[in-house]
Give the backbone structure.
Amino acid sequence: MLAASSPHLSVLDQLQDNLEVVWGALLAFAVVVLVTPAVAGMARRFGVVDLPGGRRVNQLPVPRLGGIGLFFGMLVPALAFLHVGHQTRGILLGATIAVLVGIIDDFRGLPWYGKLGGQIAAASMPVAFGVWIDRFTLPFVGIHTLPAGVGVPLSILWIVAIMNMVNFLDGLDGLAAGVAAIAGLTFSVIALSLGKVDAAILSAIVFGACVGFLRHNFYPARIIMGDSGALLLGYMLGAISVQGLLKTAATVALFFPLLVLAVPIVDTTFVVVRRMRHGERVFEADQAHLHHRFLRRGFSQRRAALTIWAWCLCLAAAAFATRFVPFRAHGQWHPWWTLLAAAIGFAAVLFSIYVVYVLEIVKLGNRIQRRRKSDDPLKKIA
C-alpha cells in the first residue's frame, strides 16, 4: 500500500529543499571525468593492466584501477555536501576499505578468502556505525523489528553479497558502471520520497560518478574499474540500500533493492548454481555470465551492454511504479492507475522473458556452435 501523501510531490519538495542531490551528482561526474585519465596513466606505468583472457573479453591490454577515480569522485562530493555524521563516517570508512582491498587485488591478486575477509571488514564498518537492518515491513503482515543478533549479520551478508554481484557483473566495457548508475539514480529518487536525504545524496553521487566513468569506460574502454571499482560500487549500493530503503516503514521498501538489483542478483545466482552443479570453484573466473552468453549469441559488446542496461531500466521503472503510481491511494483501488502500474510491470516481465528466450537459444545452439570453426575463443566455451 502506498502512503496517503503523494510521493512524487514529496520528491519534488525534497529536491527543492536539498539541491545537494543535484550538485553532488554533478561534482562526482566532474571529478571522475578529470581524474580517471591520470589514474589510467598511473596504472600503465605500474603495469596494472588487464590482459585478454579469463572472464574479460578485451582484445588489447587495458589499465585497471578505475576504482581509484570512482573513489575520489564519491569522496569529494560526500565531504562537500553531506554532514559527516556518525553513519556517514561509517559508510565512508567502509568505502575506503573496499577500494583498498580492490587495489591490492588489482596489483597483485588476492586469494578468495583474503578478498572475502576484506569485504566483510568493509561491510562491518557501516554496521558498526548504526547502518543495519533493524526492522522491515511486509505487505499484509506489518512492521517487524529485528534484534541485533539477526539484523547485524544479515546486513553484513547483504552488503558482501552485492559487492560480489557487481564484481561478477564487471565483464564488459561499461556494463557494471551502467547498471550501477541506473541503480544509483533509482535509489536516489526513492530515498528522497522516503525522506532519506543522506542516502539520496550518496545515491546521486554514485550515479554521477558512474556516468563520469562511462566517459572513459564504455566500449572501447580506455580503462576498466577493476576489483577496486567493482567492490567499491557494490559496497556503496549495498550500504545505501540498507540506509535508505530497507530501514523504513514503507510497505514495499523491501522489494525496491531486489527489483533494482535484479540483474546482478540473477547473474550471480545463475553462475554460482552452474559452478556448484559442475563441481567448479565458486570464485573462479570464467565466461559463463549472462553477458558472455549474449556475446556467444552474436551480440556485440556494445549491444550486449545496452541490452542489459535496458533490462535494468525496465526493472527500475517497475520499482518507480510500485512507489509512485497511486494504484491504491487512501486504501482504495483506482482502476486506471492500477492498469498503468500493471502495464509497467508487464513490460518488465516481457523484457525478462525476452532475455531468458535469447539465453535459451544460446544454450540450445551450443552444440551447433562447437562444430563451427572460429578463432573467437568465446565460441569454444560451452
About this structure: The radius of gyration is 21 Å.
